[in-house]
Amino acid sequence: MFIDKAKIFIKAGNGGNGAIAFHREKYVAAGGPDGGDGGNGGNVVFRVDLGLSTLIDFRYKRKYVAENGQNGMTNKMNGKRGADIIISVPQGTVVRDVATGKVIADLYDPSKDVILAKGGNGGWGNSHFATATRQTPNFAKNGQKGAEREIFLELKLLADVGLVGFPNVGKSTILSRTTKANPKIANYHFTTLEPNLGVVELEDHMSFVLADIPGIIEGASEGVGLGHEFLRHIERTRLLIHVVDVSCIEGRNPIEDFDIINSELSKYDLDLENRPQIVAANKTDIIQDKAVFNDFCDEMGKRGFKVFPISAATGKGIGELMKYAYTELQKLPPVREFDVELDVNEKAAIDTTEKGFEIKVENGVYVISGSWIEAVGGSVNFDDSESLQFFQRSLKNRGVIDALIEKGIKEGDTVRIGDLEFDFVW
User: Fold this and answer.
1) Which of 112, 113, 31, 43 is nearest to 76 (CA)?
2) At the N or C end, where does the chain have fewer CB atoms within 10 A?
3) Strand pairing partners for 5?
4) Whole-model pTM above 0.85?
5) Which of 294, 296, 213 is nearest to 256 (CA)?
6) Torsion sign (Cα): 28, 29, 33, 36
7) Tens digit of pLDDT for each residue in 19-28?
8) What per-residue string of b and e applies to 212-239 under the rule 16 or more CB within 10 Å gives b?
């Protein structure tokens, strides 16, 4: 089954917590703090797999979570880093952030893995907090949460040349004659229900990828028929072969058909309107009205289009058409890549600035968010005076106290940091 879009949830692993531990050894009366650091959480990594051609796997599994980092241990032993989760996708998959609709990755290079959710950093063990005046810190730092987001996967085929035209004009037959692809072929509309790819191999190691796009009809750009579902697959093509039935067997006008298809292309994506086209006048072996065919060729010539009279059924003119397409490809720029519109590390970048937190008032509660502040808040040991002092100094030094006062907080008001709630006292 061909599936070319899917919505999934991804979450990177949380960082492990730092350990609270003290050195214990025979003949050592008062060992110092030796709590190890927590391990970093695993990343969510996307990888292009050339063996995949559909997003069907994401139809049955929609949640992907990387492994958490292990907590720190005694003897300054750090926790193990969480394992990454590798998600394989077909070449040409575009990833969008569901919340914003922006592109966060264009996965086309099989040699380059892309991290779309970064694991949280592990927390520091209590050995990091020892000072000359605080020799037995009874607190450590919790690990940070891993990034998480809902994303939309959209497969946009990577083909050099796309075959476009009305249903039943012979596109699948052309593909079967020029490549090793085996599309379904029959004499009725909408035979092709999914895009097909094949490699056209010419002499002297000349080759290119050819895509048979399901038939486009009038109204396709608004979702009529199959066109809306598959127009996305010609967004990357560098050259279009516009296949037109010039036989007049069905009583259609080839000029009108040509104009309708181009109108739909321009409505879907204005860039497609300017994509170079070669016109393949198909079914010339069964032409019913020679005058209509001649008028079509004259009109295409006036518009500056190269016309190849062909017969996909007999193979007439197919070789010349493919050679000309290859020659034209050499003049065109590389396959289109989609610009990344949203940096997946944007939130982390905000959290590591001088401020690094946000305060909102919800039903009278002052809610402080941000990975740094949540990690500090989760580390507080309320039974330990040194831990409380460290927490208060951290809030003061990072400007949290001043920001709360600016928001109008008063003594006794409730403050929430992650799962931690306490009364404000200053």
Assistant:
1) 31
2) N
3) 154
4) no
5) 296
6) positive
7) 988 887 776 6
8) bbbbbbbebbeeebbbbbbbbbbbbbbb
